[in-house]
Design brief:
Umud Fragment, subunit A, 132 residues, alpha+beta, single chain, seven-stranded antiparallel sheet, 36% strand, 2 domains
Length: 132
């Protein structure tokens, strides 16, 4: 792996589930955003970038060069103000190329209820085995 701080990709594509309303109306809570793993970003692009252990999906509103490092000023479309912290180019996961509406809600439900699903499946298998 070239950069252990970046999300693994599949054929240069990455997927993130949106859990906040900062990009409404373009991106809704529960949408899955697909990004292309690329360094070629420009003002107006919706990017996914890493801030500590969180990935944020916001729009680039300004590009700056600070002490030789490219930094992006970002903003959620639904937010009144720009993000306080700049996003260094090195933290960019990629540029949004599409979204899958609402599927993230199903994935989050399954993830949060995985133990219940497993218990029910085991119970069904045991009952089938006992009452053969």
């Amino acid at each position: 792996m070239n950069n252990p701080n970046k999300t693994p990709n599949l054929f240069g594509k990455k997927a993130f589930i949106i859990i906040s309303g900062s990009m409404i109306p373009e991106i809704q809570i529960g949408d899955v955003v697909i990004v292309n793993d690329t360094d070629a970003v420009k003002i107006g692009d919706v990017i996914a970038f890493r801030r500590d252990s969180t990935v944020i999906v916001h729009r680039i509103v300004k590009e700056m060069n600070i002490n030789g490092e490219v930094m992006y000023q970002t903003k959620g479309d639904n937010n009144n103000v720009e993000d306080k912290e700049l996003a260094p180019k090195s933290t960019v996961e990629g540029v949004m190329i599409g979204k899958i509406p609402a599927i993230g809600k199903v994935l989050m439900w399954l993830y949060n209820h995985l133990s219940i699903v497993i218990v029910v499946l085991i119970a069904i298998l045991i009952l089938r085995f006992i009452f053969r």
